[in-house]
Amino acid sequence: MTATRPLIVGIGAACVLALGACSSSSSSSSTSGSTTGSTAGTNAGTTSAKSVLVCEVTDLSGSQGVLTVSEAGGGAAAASLVNAAGGIKSLGGAKIVIKKFDTQSNPTMGSQEANAAVSAGCKAIFGGEITDTVMAATLVTHRSSIPWVDIGGIGDAVHERGFNDVFQLLTTTTLAEGYMQMLQQVASDFHLSHPTIGLSVSDTTYGQDFYSAWTKLNASGQFKVVSNVSYPLGTTDMSSVAARMVSQKPDILFNMGYPPDGIALTSLFKKTFHTTAKAFLSTAEAPVAMQQLGSLADGQLFENTAPPTTSTNLTAFNNAYKTVTGQEPSIEAWEGYTAVEFIAAALDKAGSTSGAAVATAMHSVTLNAANGNIYPTDLSFASDGVLNAPPTYWQQDQVGKLLFVYPASLKQASLIPYS
User: Fold this and answer.
1) Which residue, among 263, 269, 152, has the nearest Cα to 210 in the 3D structure?
2) What is the pLDDT of residues 259-278, one digit of tens each?
3) Predicted TM-score of the model (pTM)
4) How many Cβ atoms from other residues are within 10 Å of residue 371's Cβ?
5) Superfamily designation of domain 16-170+309-380
6) Residues 58 and 128 sit within 8 Å (Cβ to Cβ)
């Protein structure tokens, strides 16, 4: 089984890195954050004394490629901002150079591209949208003690192996907790005393982990699952899935799949398989869904881990991202940015490009307002490599406007029914 994270908001840019163009060919890529442009990562991936090679190993093409466009842009923006601020100061102002490796949304490419990144001389790695890909790839990088900040391969199995050099910005457990909170809010707001759910689950490591984590949270039976359908990764026609989800007239529709799945299901629910459900939760990303679906996205809920407040760092990042991509940032953009900022902070603390030293430093660094954090709360990793208390918020498309509906501290509007 194969796994990715669902994740969350937006996309849209062409595959591009700061100060460099992007190549989609496997085991090769452009570089960013360097004044030497594409030459900085092409000589066997080595870096000069004035640069540090940080690599993005991820699904630049294939079904998950739409997510990594934003991820790559966010990482590139982080590199450009770090470099503009003087680079890695403990390394004499070394500039971050980013090189990309394409796993092509194919888990069997994980080991191959990870080996290529190791051979290229990468000092730290970020990326990954499919759990099984990240699992295979980090087996390779762990043997070489190269730290990896995982963005989208959110299966709990990634960190449960106990590798001290693998870090996760999100896991299926923390994801499930965020969805359970929103489900409870839906039940409360719509006065559903015995809420029923029409469920669909991606038959992948990620999907099954998500389902297992959520099932544990629902052990009391607060939500009754009245239909439950699984489907393989890469399913393009979701008609049968949609039909089974609505067949028992559930109060809530819930898709534990990937962002494109949520978009496809929304189209089907609004056009073909009409529903009386009060809410639809999926991992569809707001900017993409609203752009592709238009008015059909009305009423859809979106988990949003995007910063809900304005800060100097956030403004600087948003501007840098727009410069790099020409687009508005999305959740993958913020996560790509955060991953590279963590790597930069760890490199600075370690004062070394030794993978083991950088990994050790990663366990003790904290991202705050002073070192680039764009979130309202400080960020750090727990001892198992999982991000402590990942920030999460919920928004809803209400007649074309994306409004916060959870938590109460950010609430801009009350929930409206999906159907």
Assistant:
1) 152
2) 899 999 999 999 999 999 99
3) 0.76
4) 18
5) Response regulator (3.40.50.2300)
6) yes
